[in-house]
């Protein structure tokens, strides 16, 4: 019924789990806002659309965020995971083209996440618990213009 839908806003609801087939019919989806919910779990490969460019999962209860959750996405430009309970992130951004803004502030990250930073413009990791950044984690950052590491334990 909503197969042509390209923007979906489900913010400020009481969603707790995002299941594998929840968004399967939305093959043209470009923008998905799931912020301000109670999401604790996202199953693997929830999106069929490969052209989602905007994804907002801020203000939820996510503790981990894994590459497999959104492995079909190719053109993600904006990812907001701020204000969650993230302790671990595993993303292979080499598969995602045009990644430019990633917001990870106000989480529980203790380590600088292993991110492929080549195409990033804006990365916010403020107000986490990061204690150390390895030298090899900040290589090939030619396009990075904003890096916020304030309020950490560096």
Number of strands: 11
Query: Number of DSSP helices?
Result: 0
Spatial arrangement of strands, main beta sheet? 1-3-5-7-9-10-11
- Class computed from helices, strands and strand pairing: mainly beta
Report the portion of residues in β strands: 15-25%
- Please state the CA-atom Rg, rounded to the nearest Å: 15 Å
Major sheet summary line: 7 strands, parallel
Shape: globular
Describe the structure.
The chain has 154 residues and is an all-beta fold. It is 0% helix and 20% strand. Strands 1-3-5-7-9-10-11 form a seven-stranded parallel sheet, with no helix packed on it. The chain is globular. 29% of the residues are buried.
List the helices and strands and how they pair.
Elements (H helix, E strand, L loop, with lengths): L6 E3 L7 E2 L12 E3 L7 E2 L11 E3 L7 E3 L11 E3 L7 E3 L10 E3 L18 E3 L21 E3 L6
Parallel strand pairs: 1-3, 2-4, 3-5, 5-7, 6-8, 7-9, 9-10, 10-11
